[in-house]
Amino acid sequence: MKIFRNSLFTLLFMLLATAFAEAQTSATRPILDVPYVPTRQVVVDAMLDLAKVSANDVLFDLGCGDGRIVITAAQKHGATGTGVDIDPDRIKEANENAKKANVSDKVNFVEGNLFEMDFSKATVVTLYLLPDINLKLRPQLMKQLKPGTRVVSHAFEMGDWKPEQTVNVDGATLYLWTIPEGK
């Protein structure tokens, strides 16, 4: 009986410890505004082509996930870039991917809230966010970005800011805007 009671106590303790550890882990995990859904490579390539990315560009990918847009911009177009994501697991993965692609000298990944970031150095901004996040972000884009900066969104528009170009690629819709003069 004593062995049963000790085993029961040990099992209960382990369950409580596991629940506590899980609560601690989830308490430190960021709350994501957008679920992580990787952009297919054919769409990444089309986004960069739509923005006419070149070696002279500084690209910022807001909600960068595994870093594939920034990495592709560096590999195929010679651009430098920064990816921003609130999820530390995605930032770790993006850095590992940049290292594998041999572009760590051209790219940077930052863990943080994109609404608290300075992306004023960008000449191109890419997004794969939800419509409400795009709308919330739009004033910040207008405030921080220089006229002529290109903004490309995968799948979602920017409310009444009409895109200059809309492209369909393999079932995905892409939108292009340019930050106007006298914004």
Write the layout of secondary structure elements.
Elements: H1 2-28, H2 41-50, E1 58-62, H3 68-77, E2 80-85, H4 88-100, E3 107-111, E4 124-127, H5 131-144, E5 150-154, E6 165-169, E7 172-178
Parallel strand pairs: 1-2, 1-4, 2-3, 4-5
Antiparallel strand pairs: 5-7, 6-7
Helix pairs in contact: 2-3
Summing up helix and strand content along with how strands pair, one would put the structural category as: alpha/beta
Any idea what the radius of gyration is? 21 Å
The major beta sheet can be summarized as:
7 strands, mixed
How many runs of DSSP E, i.e. beta strands?
7
Which residue ranges are poorly predicted, with pLDDT under 50 across at least 5 consecutive positions?
2-27
Question: Descriptors for this entry?
Answer:
183 residues; alpha/beta; 20% strand; disordered N terminus
Could you characterize the architecture of this molecule?
This protein has 183 residues and is an alpha/beta fold. 40% of the residues lie in helices and 20% in strands. The chain is built from five helices and seven strands, in the order H-H-E-H-E-H-E-E-H-E-E-E. It has a seven-stranded mixed β-sheet with strand order 3-2-1-4-5-7-6, covered by helices on one side. It is globular. The N and C termini lie far apart (78 Å).
